[in-house]
């Protein structure tokens, strides 16, 4: 945001939704994939804007059906440092009867005392 000091930030559910909304408005920008620019006929103003070259985004399709091939999935969460947030995430797994085999935490390497799970 250092280059867009006057910008108003509008939170949306996904980058694809942001790109869709931008396509219907004037004088707006969003951060999204190149695929979104093609789908919604948007102009790419700048690419490779991440501040960490190790950043990667992955998407998973979740199902209520039991996995028959034994594959496991790693999910990394960066949670707000607030009482009860971790419990709320764990409760979602309980509510949907999802088995957790392991929970680990490590330093986020952004600020002392901030962890990812």
Description:
There is one protein chain. With 117 residues, the protein is mainly alpha-helical. Among the domains are: 11-50, no CATH class; 85-116, no CATH class. The chain contains three helices and two strands. The chain has helices at 15-22, 34-39, 85-95; strands at residues 106-107, 115-116. It has a two-stranded antiparallel sheet with strand order 1-2.
Structural features:
117 residues; two-stranded antiparallel sheet; mainly alpha; 3 helices; single chain
Q: Main sheet: which strands, in order across?
A: 1-2
The averaged pLDDT comes out at 76
**Secondary structural class:** mainly alpha
Q: What is Rg?
A: 18 Å
Number of strands: 2
Give the count of helical stretches. 3
Give the biggest sheet. 2 strands, antiparallel
Low-pLDDT stretches are none
Topology:
Blueprint: H1 15-22, H2 34-39, H3 85-95, E1 106-107, E2 115-116
Antiparallel strand pairs: 1-2
């Amino acid at each position: 945001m250092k280059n867009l000091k006057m910008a108003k930030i509008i939170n949306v559910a996904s980058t694809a939704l942001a790109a869709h909304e931008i396509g219907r408005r004037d004088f707006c920008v969003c951060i999204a994939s190149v695929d979104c620019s093609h789908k919604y006929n948007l102009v790419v103003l700048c690419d490779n804007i991440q501040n960490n070259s190790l950043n990667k985004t992955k998407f998973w399709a979740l199902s209520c059906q039991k996995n028959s091939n034994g594959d496991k999935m790693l999910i990394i969460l960066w949670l707000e440092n607030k009482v009860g947030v971790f419990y709320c995430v764990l409760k979602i797994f309980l509510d949907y009867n999802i088995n957790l085999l392991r929970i680990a935490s490590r330093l986020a390497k952004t600020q002392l005392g901030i962890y990812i799970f």
